[in-house]
Design a protein that fits this description.
Shape: rod-shaped
Strand content: under 5%
Distance between the termini: 49 Å
């Protein structure tokens, strides 16, 4: 299903830098370093993001001064955050790497998830192969018994069709079975 997919990491990076995917991380840093509660920090960042979107600017245009002005407008008091801390919070790669919990976007967590998927796919493939082998050996055994029972491959296929047919009425199935017996294909 994924054979024709083409991944373009540079385009992904460009999209993440032009969008506000790190806004929650900026709010987290603002809460931890700026001394705000989380609700106020998210309110301040939301206000700053809205102002940038309305101005048609990217996240890189967010400065400590703009963040402080957004804080004054949103919660009535300015906040202080140094430029280096803000830039680190706006970096998508750094934000992804900082997520260390299971199921996160860090490289280590993604590697572990992918290894788990590989193991699951391998186990499923082994199970499927074993099931195909069991089916094949059962068919071979059935065909080996067919000459004694006067059954041929098409007859077996017809019988499978009769047994698996759930759409036909019971009367129609009995008619089909009766015709089969009349032609001499029944087991004696």
């Amino acid at each position: 299903m994924l054979d024709g997919i083409e991944l373009r990491p540079t385009r992904f990076e460009q999209i993440t830098r032009e969008s506000f995917v790190t806004a929650a991380d900026v709010a987290d840093v603002l809460a931890l370093e700026g001394g705000l509660d989380y609700r106020s920090a998210h309110k301040v960042v939301g206000r700053a993001v809205r102002e940038l979107v309305e101005a048609g600017e990217s996240p890189s245009a967010l400065t400590p001064a703009r963040l402080s002005a957004a804080a004054e407008a949103a919660i009535g008091k300015p906040v202080e955050l140094d430029e280096q801390t803000l830039r680190a919070a706006l970096d998508p790669a750094a934000c992804a790497a900082a997520r260390l919990q299971v199921g996160s976007s860090s490289e280590a967590a993604m590697g572990a998830m992918l290894e788990g998927l590989d193991a699951t796919f391998s186990a499923n493939e082994a199970w499927s192969e074993a099931a195909r082998e069991r089916e094949s050996s059962a068919e071979t055994a059935l065909l080996a018994r067919a000459p004694r029972a006067r059954l041929s491959r098409p007859t077996i296929a017809r019988r499978r069709g009769v047994a698996r047919s759930s759409r036909r009425s019971t009367r129609a199935r009995w008619r089909q079975i009766s015709r089969f017996r009349v032609r001499g294909g029944g087991v004696r």
